[in-house]
Amino acid sequence: MVASTSDSRRPDPTGRSALLMIEFVNEWLNAAGKLRFLMAHNESAFAASVEAGKRALQCARAAGIDVIHATLKLSSDYRELGQAHFGLRGAIPKANTWTSNETGWQFHKDFTPQANEFVVEGRTGASAFASSNLDVFLRNQGISRLYLAGYATHVCIESTMRHAHDIGYEPVIIEDATAAFTEAQQRHVIEHTVHHFGWSIKIEEFASLLGRRR
Length: 214
Description:
alpha/beta, 6-stranded parallel sheet
């Protein structure tokens, strides 16, 4: 299944939208986070993505669209992941990340969810939809378009984008509000993957789209 690379259509701004903030949490954003070192080779882009994430959140709140926050919180013995020794199911226990008895999974202070914002629960995989209540929330709210921001672009953002597309949503990556471990990884997703599943836009376009809704 191949989408046309010549398709330059932009996402329709008139439908009901939500901003999905994926893993703006201590594991990535706190200096002591266990995953923070992975962004060391892409430090300037990562720092810029944090600022763009703040702006995306501010714009969404000002425009009154739904804001959704996703983290990953697992049992201390990782029982949800089974006995796998490959992929993230093997890497996460090895890194000892995302356990409920530590603070890495908690939202960073600059991205604390407000009382009226939805926090995804039950997630067990790279996609924010994996075993979670995200899909049922979106359908019950009549949301069809999902703007994505967060980490990492080539892992959880891409996984969520693919999943969203395949179950009927319109995913739009806010590309400068995301970051990968390297510039090459980021560029590959934006230039070679996104067009098969949705769109990517810059934070300025996101702010402009929401500004038209007010």
